[in-house]
Each structure stands twice: as structure tokens, then as C-alpha cells.
Amino acid sequence: MRRGGPAALAACLAGAFAVLAGPGPGSGPGSTAWGGRRPPRSYGHLEGDVRWRRLFSATRFFLRIDGSGGVEGTRWKERPGSIVEIRSVRVGVVAIRAVHTGFYLAMNKQGRLYGSKEFSPNCKFMERIEENGYNTYAALRWRHRGRPMFLSLNSKGRPQRGGKTRRQHLSTHFLPMLVS
């Protein structure tokens, strides 16, 4: 049974488009002078921020970059190389450098972690605060089959290859602890 015709269909579509479009600019409470769109935010004050921390893994190891550029986990809090400088490169992107050895944490295309004397694109990590309060660090430059590759220490304190890591794995979760 058919009701209405082309005029009824046109009226129905016009009503649907009006609902999707929402109220016009300058109408209704909370309207803004720029037509309801939020102005771009400026986070320039966050760029170049430097924090000295110890990165404590959910697997109960402190991240350490030794004098030869090796990356490992250590249970000893006071071990040289466990204090890192987390420097903001831009919003959400950080570089991690061991204070005592001067090596930057880096990840290569295969997802292996290493220490680099020179700062390079391999040294940039996306920092994200997870729902449980821990931070995850994903390589900015490299992905494995479309997925991000994360900084990770396994249950023995050894770094895991980035291709085997996921955001949900506890081995990728780190707490940046204040240096006392």
C-alpha cells in the first residue's frame, strides 16, 4: 500500500536534512561567534618540555639503556642508565634519552629496540596515557602490518620486538616515576 507521492518524499527528505544540519549559527544557547566550531587549540607551550623519570614497566622492571646502546630491564632502581629524560618533540610525540649514557631510545624497521647516540626519526615515540594510568610508547615512524609497534619489556626484562606487541599487553605499559 503506497502513501503520499513525490511531494511527501521531498518533504520527508527536507526534514531529515534539517535535523542533520542542526541549528544555524547564532541560534540557541551556547552558540558561538564562529558558527559553532571550536577554534584550533594551541599546545606550543608543551613543545620542548623535559622530564627526568624512571620508566617502570608493569612487568616490574625499570627501563635501562646501557653504555653500549643495549636496551634492557633492571630490577635495581639505582642502576646507572635507568634515569631517562623524556623530551616533548611535539604534542603527543616524545624522545627518550638515558641521562647517564646519553643514548636515545630508538626502534628500527624490524621493531628492535636499541640505543642511538644521534637523534633520528627512529627515536620518536607516540606517548599515550591509558585508562589504567600507565603510559604506552609506540614508534612514530614504523608500523607492523598496519599496527603500531610499542616499547615493551617481557617478564624477564628483555625488550620484545615491536611486531609482537599490542597496546593491551601489560608488557607495553610503563609508569614514569619521579626521580628523587
TrEMBL record:
CDD domains assigned to the protein according to its UniProt record, in alphabetical order: beta-trefoil_FGF22
Any single biological process term in GO: cell differentiation
Superkingdom classification of source: Eukaryota
Signal peptide stretch: 1-21
Keyword field: Developmental protein, Differentiation, Growth factor, Mitogen, Signal
GO molecular function, one term: growth factor activity
PROSITE patterns cross-referenced by the UniProt entry: HBGF_FGF (PS00247)
InterPro entries, per the entry: Fibroblast_GF_fam, IL1/FGF
UniProt family annotation: Belongs to the heparin-binding growth factors family.
Name by which UniProt lists this protein: Fibroblast growth factor
Organism field: Strigops habroptila
Gene that specifies this protein: FGF22
